[in-house]
Amino acid sequence: MIEINLAPGAEGARPARQPLAVAVPRxxxxxxxxxxxxxxxxxxxxxLALGHGLSRQGARREExxxxxxxxxxxxxxxxxxxxxxxxxxxxxxxxxxxxGLIREVDQRRYVWPHLLDEISRAVxxxxxxxxxxxxxxxxxxxxxxxxxxxxxxxxGPAFALQGHAGSTQALTxxxxxxxxxxxxxxxTLVTSEQVDRDGxxxxxxxLEARYERPDSAAVATVPIAILE
Length: 228
Prior knowledge:
Layout: H1 34-108, H2 111-122, E1 127-135, E2 158-165, H3 168-179, E3 184-197, E4 200-211
Antiparallel strand pairs: 1-2, 2-4, 3-4
Helix pairs in contact: 2-3
């Protein structure tokens, strides 16, 4: 018959497990040497500083993560706003171009009425015109290598006048009147010759000039009367 002794302290009993020991710096007891007291206090301070640094680092990390999220959200919002602004600017540029084209067409619409009005005012007595026509302006040749570019040709249309004058004074007066108009410039006498008409000597001439857009202050405006 086999007997087993289960009483504590009996031979063959397994020893109890001891808890794990953590090495914690022990504070010096009262009456310990000053060097030991200083070393213990320094170790405690180091532990406290390390714990405070770790806690601050964790808080700083969380703050930086939240800041990064806010910056990403702001960047997304700003990118959307910037794209919208660029779209609006492109539309504004398109509208400006269309308005400029409409204004240019509207201004050119009155070129020939202005010219005919100014020419009729400039014709002196004993002078009459036989033809008024548009004159093509040749394009400026390209500059040679190393040469400075020439000035662009003005946008105003050129025109030619043909007619008869009773005297050279009348022809000179016509040219001065044309030059005095704010809508006409570069008046040039191309040809002038004497011809006989019905027993009278006349001067047949050809003039060339160019339309010029005047200053807005030089254009006379007339108020429109509204009839009720």
